[in-house]
Design brief:
disordered N terminus, Galactose-bd-like_sf, 7 helices, 5-stranded mixed sheet, single chain, FA58C, alpha+beta, 3 domains, globular, Immunoglobulin-like, F5/8 type C domain-containing protein, signal, Collagenase (Catalytic Domain), 6-stranded antiparallel sheet, Jelly Rolls
Amino acid sequence: MRKLLNLLIATLALGVASCNKTLIPTDEKSENLKLKASSATITNEWRQNPYKLNVIYFVPNDVDSIPNFGKRISRILLDAQEMFASNMNREGFGRKSFGLDLTNDTLINIHYIAGKFGKSTYPYSGGSGAVKSEVDAYFAQNPTFKKSEHNLIIIPTYNTDPANPGGPPFYGTGTTCYALDYINLDAKNLGIGGDIGWKATVWIGGMIHELGHGLNASHNRMNKTLAPTLGTALMGSGNSTYGISTTSLTATTAATFNNSQVFSTVTRNDWYGAASAEITSLSSSYSNDKIIISGKFTTTKPVNDIVVWHDREPFGGNNDYDAVQWATKIIGQDSFRFECPLADFYDLNGNYEMRIGFMHVNGSRSTLGYAYNFVNNVPDLSKVVTHKLLPTTGWSILGSDSNESGAPASNVLDMNRSTIWHTPWSSAQTPQPHFFSVNMGALRSVKGLAFRNRDNLNGAMKDINIYTSTNGTSWTLIKSAQLSKVSGSWINVNLDSTISTRYLKIESVNSWGDFFYSHLADFGVFSN
């Protein structure tokens, strides 16, 4: 009987796990058998997508699955598939959508995995890793079941009260996202009003929002002039409007999906492999109530789409729901241009981070950040520029106070953002300030300095002092400045006047996050 059950489960493409509980509720098995037996022809518009979203139903061993989850979740995802296609078409990408592994046109093959442990092993905070490790093990044992790098993992509520679902992980991490199932998670409840309807919007909208993250999308807000017709951005606060009022993909989200593996109509062997882009020239201006950004770039992997987010402080992470955005295609082979009307901004004051994202054909994304601010409702874009830096060939590190093993100060001169200078953090913890000094090999005309951070900004240099020397021994302070908390792009510091010098010393007074350590990826100098 056990062998027969396992054979049945494998036939249904549902997960097997070592557990004493019943793996699939009887009503689910019966329904799947009837639907499987029908052998209906699949006409789903995206059935030919070579990559499909892996949909997993993960059940801790002290939690019950929710009845009819197969039908309910299938309907929700098929509706989302159509909604995405309509939005992609509006944004000029055609009716592209994510692929689903279907039994027929109304039912998805959902991988049922019985967790090895109880719900306490898989809490909301920090529990996703334990879930993912079991999902990875399942696909390692069943490699033909894995249809892409993208997973939607749905976990039944830990609360028995249907009016108060919650408990398991519910967020996106990389190409995997987590959502929750409960008794009233049903598309028929969207828009019916009352507590049941509201919760359906929150949890179904939340599922589709998190799915967006699992398909590579970032948070953003619908541009102000588009909101009256396109409503709320799904990747903004769309989980509170989904099924109630108009909820749409923004141009940036659509451009992101255009380069996601499960939206692809062609196969590749390098999905999400290493890729990088560098902006070689960048100019910014304010004209006719628009921020105009244009530039040129180089890349290690071709780029299909380029996007820009304007994110008001606080920046990034879960603080970017309010980021207005634009998307564009490449001009020629290596150029781009954005026009961002101020009429689309919600706040014309305070500090902003502008992030430019390059969407590579293999699904990877390179993002470069620039800081600017508004003064009297006018953007000050003086720092949104890329200077031609002097070659660092023949330069050397004159000295530094301390280095983490494998992260010497010489790394700041190699123009390679993957190598960094880092002061000690894994052993001796030397406090701020920290410094490194540079011998440029000869007298150089210096108008300003440029700094580039790694992606992880914890400990990035914040307030700095800049010194010059005639002999590399005695130092004179010439400038104090604060570096922007941005990654990827060069942070420029203009000197008060052009100087001629051979030696420079950079002192980190403190770091972003008030860490005892400092780090920097690259350092440069410009003369004009």
